[in-house]
């Protein structure tokens, strides 16, 4: 460090050196101007710290790393928007913003772009004279014959339906697009009508209208509404939904009993057929002399055995009552839990003095795990296999390792020589050693495939050994 550096640190002005004379020449204007010239301002550094540098300026200008994003420069002009009018329906006009100037959009109200989705059913409309004309016409003979066969009356309905009420019904059908529950809820014409009455009148008027318009239309039979069948169907459904649990159980028991009778009848018929087959063998039209010798008796005995072996096997299992089966399961579970508790008490009494602390803990853990497994199976007994699979519910009997692990890490591995053969076999089949998506079902099927491949490799090994021994003997 030089003296000039120390004087600069202490902020002491340095006297100019004299060259031979006591009076030193005054500094020139250019030198004084250069010394008083302002230094360039450097960003990213405090002013006091920068002044301490003096003449030793850094070779690299320090600048801040984080800067605000520059303002976007957009050269395109913004497009104008217009609050244009459009037709929501025939009676209402609304406004929405549309891209474009007012001259391009225009001043007339245009239809909405969603008008094409506003589709309604085409329901016939008619005046009073037309209604009276086509309702006065008779139904063709084919329709009359059809109604007589079905058991319905073919006479004209002489009820209190007037044209004004029919017109009111058709207006509601147009408004609500044949949503009959809504139509019945909104129907208010001075009297109450059931849903079946409204539907019957609507389809009857439509049928008469289309018969008068086009009698050969193939869609006319679809306009026939069977009111009695609809009422009967609703009554049957109401009775079906109003059943109690006891009635459902009784129906299930009756179904089981009927299946028992059917299986018993099938079994009786099969036994009768087998008995008739034995009685008819040998055939009565043949001579008995061929069965008098020992050879003939042996042939008869062989034919009877072969006939018995050709007898079809029938299912002997009888369906069980579901309620009795449930009670048996409850009794079995209660017995198993009682046995577990008795064994636990016996082991605690007999081996309490002999067992160490660690053995006691292991035994308690095993008993607890077994009890939890029994309890889990008791909870899941009402779930079928498909329901367990869809819900992903499983009861683990074995002890699971602590922590999280991948299911693919539990795939079986073999010795290096056997593993290479298994990998080669999987490669020939076009499969990977590890499944790409190791779900529960995929891993189970993969394990089964590995077991079969190992069995085939073992069989191939024994076959090669036998073929080698056979070649040596030759």
Index terms:
17 helices, chromatin regulator, Arc Repressor Mutant, subunit A, mainly alpha, transcription corepressor activity, about 475 residues, DAMP1_SANT-like, single chain, transcription, Swc4/Dmap1, 3 strands
Give a brief rundown of this model.
With 474 residues, this protein is mostly helical. The chain has helices spanning 3-10, 29-35, 47-53, 102-105, 128-136, 141-150, 163-176, 180-186, 195-213, 227-241, 245-279, 294-309, 322-350, 357-379, 385-391, 416-429, 440-473; strands at residues 81-87, 93-99, 110-111. Among the domains are: 79-115, no CATH class; 126-139 and 159-240, Orthogonal Bundle (Arc Repressor Mutant, subunit A), CATH 1.10.10.60; 410-473, no CATH class.
Remind me, CATH topology of the domain at 126-139 and 159-240? Arc Repressor Mutant, subunit A
CATH class assignment of the domain at 126-139 and 159-240: Mainly Alpha
Work out the helicity level. 40-55%
- Could you name the ranges where pLDDT drops below 50 across 5 or more consecutive residues? 20-24, 27-34, 147-158
Output mean pLDDT.
Answer: 77
Order of helices and strands: HHHEEHEHHHHHHHHHHHHH
CATH superfamily of the domain at 126-139 and 159-240: Homeodomain-like
Characterize the biggest β-sheet.
3 strands, mixed
Radius of gyration: 50 Å
Assembly state of the chains shown: single chain
Number of helices: 17
Any idea what the shape is?
A: flat
DSSP strand tally: 3
Largest sheet, order of strands side by side? 2-1-3
Shape-level CATH architecture of the domain at 126-139 and 159-240: Orthogonal Bundle
Strand content: under 5%
How far apart are the termini?
Answer: 105 Å
Domain Myb-like: 157-208
Organism: Zygosaccharomyces rouxii
Biased composition (Low complexity): 29-38
Region (Disordered): 1-44, 304-324, 340-360
